[in-house]
Amino acid sequence: MNRVVSLLPSSTEIIHALGCGERLVGRSHECDYPAGIAALPPCTAPKFDPNGTSREIDERVKAVLQDAVSVYSVDTALLDELAPDLVVTQSQCELCAVSLKDVEAAVRELVRSKPDVLSLEPNALEDVWRDIASVAKALGVSERGNALLDESRTRLAAISGRARETGHRPRVACIEWYDPLMAAGNWVPELVEIAGGVDVLGVAGEHSAWLEWEALEEARPESIVLMPCGFDIARSRRELPALTGRPEWTRLEAAQKGQVFVTDGNQFFNRPGPRLVESAEILAEILHPDAFAFGHEGAGWERLEARVS
User: Is 4-145 a domain of CATH 3.40.50.10240?
Assistant: First the structure.
């Protein structure tokens, strides 16, 4: 597989982590890591305007999904021109990338090179490791894949072991969308557990779920970690009034005590790839600052300075 198109930011990262970045000839419009990836031509585009408030984006996405199976389109002419041997996509979430159905239709009908299609479906942390192994096998570098997985598991085990030694497991709410409110699911509850916390809202292996404010209050989180899907820290901060402007916000103990943290969800928690290890490190720094200092503060996460009385 010498010519590869990755239609997922996470699979692009996996391919680079496996030492096969030079094989990439195309990417998704959202692929932005590692440095230099923007030089590759984007093969997808959103069918909605991604600018605006959390509420506006949510409404646009739902409007598109009334008439389509995906909120993204595939540039089939460009795919044909790139003549890939392998296209990596996903079937986990219609909001994360182009749909598997659209990619398979494009490959079957319009791409003359007839590439293989590898579809990833990560719902839990073990699924992410399985997908890394699948990509490595498709690229013919299974040994590199095994080495990457061994390293990732070893690093996570070290975090988990040290976190257990702290003797405290704070109650944590991980928020994946502001308006309407959504609790992070899938692999995030597992990362919270590894980092020495108890996720009071998400369910490991299950999709992120819409959340009522009453449920957030009743969960009584000691810490709130904000990780809006697709948002970096700066954009997450700009959208904060959707949370802090609510009357319920002032009643949350975590907000009252300054235990609210803004993360770069786009680069870390939202991407089921190798940097989920760094995501666990971020959570460990947040939940147990006396035990962990990986150096992610300022780039991967920040404390929300504003407190309420």
Answer: no
Question: Taking the domains of the chain in order of start, what are their residue ranges?
Answer: 4-145, 169-303
CATH architecture of 169-303: 3-Layer(aba) Sandwich (3.40)
Distance CA 48, CA 59 (A): 10
246 closest CA partner among 265, 222, 263, 224: 224
Q: Name the E strands within 32-152.
A: 44-46, 72-74, 86-90, 116-120
Where does the pLDDT of residue 308 fall: very low under 50, low under 70, confident under 90, or very high at 90 and above?
A: very low
Q: List pLDDT tens digits, range 40-87.
A: 999 988 776 677 787 877 776 666 555 554 667 888 899 999 999 999
Report in angstroms the alpha-carbon separations of 203 from 23, 186, 191, 274: 36, 7, 11, 21
